[in-house]
Structure formats: structure tokens, C-alpha cells
Amino acid sequence: MAHVIQPAGPTARPLSGPPASLPRNPGIPLDLREVVRLRVNRSAVERRAATLGTRRTVKKEWQAAWLVQAVRLIDLTTLQGDDTPANVKRLCAKARLPVRGDLLEAMGLAGERVTTGAVCVYHNLVATAVEALRGSGIPVAAVSTGFPAAQTPMDLKLEEIRRSVIAGAEEIDVVISRGPVLGEDWKALYDEVKAFREACGEAHMKVILAVGELGTLRHVAQASHVAMQAGADFIKTSTGKETVNATLSNGLVMVRAIRDYRQATGHKVGFKPAGGIRAAKQALEWMILMKEELGDEWLQPHLFRLGASALLTDIERQLSHFVTGRYAAAHDLPMV
Fold first, then answer.
1. Is 272 noted as a catalytic residue in this protein?
2. Residues sharing a CB contact under 8 Å with residue 259, sequence separation 6 or more, in sequence order
């Protein structure tokens, strides 16, 4: 029988925690010995990942509470070729009020502040998003550094970061070059990420590893450690544009790297799975992973984000079912 995780209180109130401020990871000098010695037992990782959705579940009012918290963890994202200021403004309106007011009221949350964790867009739409979110406290995240392939000159990557910060982005999602990982040139990767960190200034940096293109789980672990040593505030699985994006196996390797880094340095680094997370059930699996591997603090927006767009609609459908006993149609849950 699956174990049921319960929140502290008896209601559907979302999980409590510290305010959504992001601590900084100052980084450390490159420790090549630590990186080279890393090993990953693939079969053990895959067995552990396979049990996450079966060993533990959340039901009824507890599930509603977790799903409301999942909304607060979402980086609501649009990264399409046909993005326009109009659809980014609609996305920002949804970020401000991601769950219908009548559903929040029915769950006793009418007075609660429920917004998404951030809005994530391309650089050219940062200013639009910043203006649309003004006064909301919701940060804008900009993808950068030649997203998604990272096949642009280094000076252009750094300039793109700087321009997004000037435009008002408080978070920068940078994507690493895959070549240094595949060639195991860890100093080159460290130097690249460190330069990105310097260009970010006060903006928090999420480092996208593009795990589906790194070849092995060992490379995922090694790239995670190097990125954190270079000053990553978050490590992120994917751009969402690769053939393989966020998987629980890759995520498990990354969160254990975060745990090891914290034990070694005392610095906390956040985690962001992205790409292919569309169902509320998947969000719960990722949250269970974070609770079991890193603890309750990593169920808060300052240390955990879900990169997604379609996910929000499914969460809202599940909350509608909790309140009414029926699943709402998609047209009943519009973007605005």
C-alpha cells in the first residue's frame, strides 16, 4: 500500500515556507579531483526513479494542497517562434491569477497570494513581460546564451545576458555548450559558466545542462558539479527543445549532486526540471523526489521550479475536480 504524505494542517492550504527569495551560490574554485572521481550506478538510479510514482501518493485535500504549491513552483514559459507581445501579456495575466478565483475561494484560499514562480520568455520579450508583471512581485526569467543550441560566439552570449538584465530580467536561464562535457574538458565548462555568472550580475542564474545531449548519467553528474562550482544558483535539466528532456533518472542524478555540493560547501543550489512536464501527476512525482532527496525546503520557489506551460492547465483541471467533482473543459480554463 502506498504511503500517503500529509501536510501539517487538515485543510487544502498550500505548503508553507520561506518567502520566494533566491539565495546566491558564490561558487568555489574548480575541483577537478571531485569531478573526475564521480561515478553513477545507472541501474540503481533507474530503479529508484521508477518507484517514485508508486511508493508514495497524495490524495484528496492533501493532493489539492500539493497542487496549489505546484502552481507556485511553475516558471510559466513561452518559447515559440510565433511569440508576440500580445500572447506574452496574456501569459503574464495568467501568472498573476493562475487558478480561477472561484476555485481558490471554494478551497478556503481566497485571501492567499497564489501566483506562478516566474514567467520565462526570450530576450526580445523581456521588457514586455516586465511591464505586464509590474507590481506583482513575479520575476521575469530570460533564456540566453544562444538558447537552445548554444552555438553562438561567446561575446554574443555574454552580451545577450547583459541586455536581458538591463531590460529587467531578474533570472537568466543560460545553456551550456555541450562540447566541453562530451570532451570532458571541465575547465572549459567551468570558465564558460563562471563568465556567464559574472555577466548576470545580481540576476540569478539557472544553468541548463541539456541532459538529453550529454551522453551518459555520469556526464550529467559531472556537469552538475562543475556548474555549481562555477556559481550556478540553479541547475536545470533541459531547454525543452531536445529529443530527451526532463526525466526522473536525470533529475535524481542532479538533485543528488545538489545534496553533495551542499554537504561539501554549505551552499544551497536550486533545481529546475523542464521539458515534457504536462500532467499534474508528473508535478507531484517531481515534488516527491525533492522532498525525499533534499527535504521540505526544496519544495519552495526559491529552490525549486517547474519549467512548463501546459502543466498549469492540467493542475487547474485537477483542482476543479477536487472542488466540483467534475473535470472542467479546456475552454473553461482560459489563459486569461
1. yes
2. 293, 294
> Distance (Å, rounded) from C-alpha 324 to C-alpha 279?
19
Q: Note if the pTM is more than 0.85.
A: yes
Q: What is the tens place of the pLDDT at every residue in 128-158?
A: 999 999 999 999 999 999 999 999 999 999 9
Q: Are 240 and 271 in contact (CB under 8 A)?
A: no
Cell numbers at 237, concatenated: 535539466
| Residues 6 or more apart in contact with residue 57 via CB below 8 angstroms | 2, 3, 4, 5, 284
**Which residues, in sequence order, are CB contacts of 295 under 8 Å at separation 6+?**
none
Catalytic residue among 94, 236, 268, 291: 236
Q: Which three cell numbers stand for residue 128?
A: 514586455
Pairing of strands 56-57, 74-77: unpaired
Catalytic-role residue among 173, 206, 291, 314: 173
d(Cα 96, Cα 231) in Å, to the nearest integer? 30
List the beta bridge partners of residue 57: 4
Work out whether strand 270-272 and strand 3-4 pair parallel, antiparallel, or are unpaired.
Answer: unpaired
- Provide the residue ranges of all domains of the chain, joining segments of one domain with +: 26-328
Task: Of 230, 233, 239, 221, give the one whose Cα is nearest residue 270.
Answer: 233
236 assigned to active site: yes
Q: Which of 194, 206, 272, 291 is catalytic?
A: 272
CA pair distance 116, 221, nearest whole angstrom: 29
Which residues on neighbouring strands pair with residue 77, listed in sequence order? 120
Mean pLDDT across the stretch 315-325? 94
- What does the alpha-carbon distance between residue 74 and residue 221 come to, in Å, rounded to a whole number? 24
Across the range 176-184, mean pLDDT stands at: 97
What's 18's DSSP letter?
Answer: S
Query: Which homologous superfamily is 26-328 in?
Result: Aldolase class I (3.20.20.70)
